[in-house]
């Protein structure tokens, strides 16, 4: 296995995307994503952060598997509350 990609909290991406573990594992994956986005302007930005225990990728990381967790930024602010409903997510 080269690496694991965990996709969670995917929404509109109006404000971009964050890559967790980007600073832990220098990878052509992060460079490639940033280069494509810089050229095509799909997202406002691709942020990078270090190690975090905030999703399923973490346990793979702890076992030595390079793991990346991607989540989008922006959109509705509801997260695991009564307002977090499929119909509130813009799909256009």
Notes on the structure:
The chain has 92 residues and is of the alpha/beta class. Helix content is 21%, strand content 22%. It has a 4-stranded mixed beta sheet with strand order 1-4-2-3. The longest helix is centred in the middle third of the chain and has 13 residues, at 28-40.
Number of helices: 2
Number of DSSP strand runs:
4
Order of H and E elements: EEHEHE
* Helical content band: 10-25%
Task: Please indicate the percent range of residues in DSSP E strands (runs of 2 or more).
Answer: 15-25%
Strand order of the largest sheet: 1-4-2-3
The end-to-end span amounts to: 35 Å
Mean pLDDT: 85
Structural category is: alpha/beta
The main sheet comes to: 4 strands, mixed
What coarse outline follows from CA principal-axis ratios?
Answer: flat
As a whole number of angstroms, the C-alpha radius of gyration is 14 Å
As residue ranges, the low-confidence spans are: none
Give the secondary structure arrangement, pairings included:
Blueprint: E1 4-7, E2 16-20, H1 28-40, E3 46-49, H2 57-62, E4 67-73
Keywords:
single chain; 92 residues; alpha/beta; 4-stranded mixed beta sheet; 22% strand; flat
Structure at a glance:
It contains 2 helices and 4 strands, in the order E-E-H-E-H-E. The protein starts with a strand and ends in a 19-residue tail after the last strand. The chain has 92 residues and is α/β, with parallel strands linked by helices.
């Amino acid at each position: 296995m080269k690496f694991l990609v965990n996709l969670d909290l995917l929404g509109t991406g109006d404000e971009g995307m964050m890559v967790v573990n980007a600073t832990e594992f220098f990878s052509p994956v992060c460079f490639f994503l940033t280069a494509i986005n810089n050229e095509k302007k799909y997202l406002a930005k691709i942020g990078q952060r270090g190690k975090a225990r905030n999703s399923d990728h973490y346990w793979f990381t702890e076992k030595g598997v390079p793991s990346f967790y991607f989540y989008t930024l922006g959109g509705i602010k509801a997260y695991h509350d009564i307002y977090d409903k499929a119909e509130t997510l813009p799909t256009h």
